[in-house]
């Protein structure tokens, strides 16, 4: 029995050591020019602003899945399905932002450590969560991602209106989701 406990202990230590991670570097990186590449290249500031949007979208998709798997209670099915729509939108937009960054010779960083360390979204609670609480938690996270898009928008637009157009599409969609999700808990004003 003692040999088994020692073996489990050393295995756990090896797993812990294997998963030690370095802190994420702040800011996105840029590529060097190669071959006959020409055209517009993102500045470090533009790259960093798009990276901020990217990590919030990746985290929104991840937290949306956490909510999707663990939501319970009244109006479960509609909430469950609506979360799928939000997750799909966040995934699609994150891919669009990352591919835009690559087109501008910037290097998107979607690694889990980078996302966890740099997102503006608060951590999502673990375990089953009542639908009413999920509505509030998801609305808060949508608003955080929207806030990041709005915060970087003017600087992005000044340097690259094409990237700003991507932010416009993200804002339109996420703001609509925030309204629809939050409406679940609203009462009519009279």
Question: How many extended strands?
Answer: 4
Number of helices in the DSSP assignment: 6
Order of helices and strands: HEHEHEHEHH
Sheet bearing the most strands, described?
2 strands, antiparallel
- Estimated helix fraction: 55-70%
Mean pLDDT: 88
| Percent of sequence in beta strands | under 5%
Q: Give unreliable regions as ranges.
A: none
Q: Give me the secondary-structure category.
A: mainly alpha
User: What is the rounded Rg?
Assistant: 20 Å
Tell me the distance between the termini: 70 Å
What is the spatial order of strands in the main beta sheet? 1-3
The dominant shape is globular
Account of the protein in words:
With 190 residues, this protein is mostly helical. It is 69% helix and 4% strand. The strands form two sheets. A two-stranded antiparallel ribbon has the order 1-3. Strands 2-4 form a two-stranded parallel ribbon. Helix 2 (44-70) packs antiparallel against helix 3 (76-103), helix 2 crosses helix 4 (112-118) and helix 3 runs antiparallel to helix 6 (161-183). It is globular. The model has no long low-confidence stretch (mean pLDDT 88).
What topology does this entry show?
Blueprint (H helix, E strand, L loop, with lengths): L1 H17 L10 E2 L13 H27 E2 L3 H28 L2 E2 L4 H7 L10 E2 H29 L1 H23 L7
Parallel strand pairs: 2-4
Antiparallel strand pairs: 1-3
Helix pairs in contact: 2-3, 2-4, 2-5, 3-6, 5-6
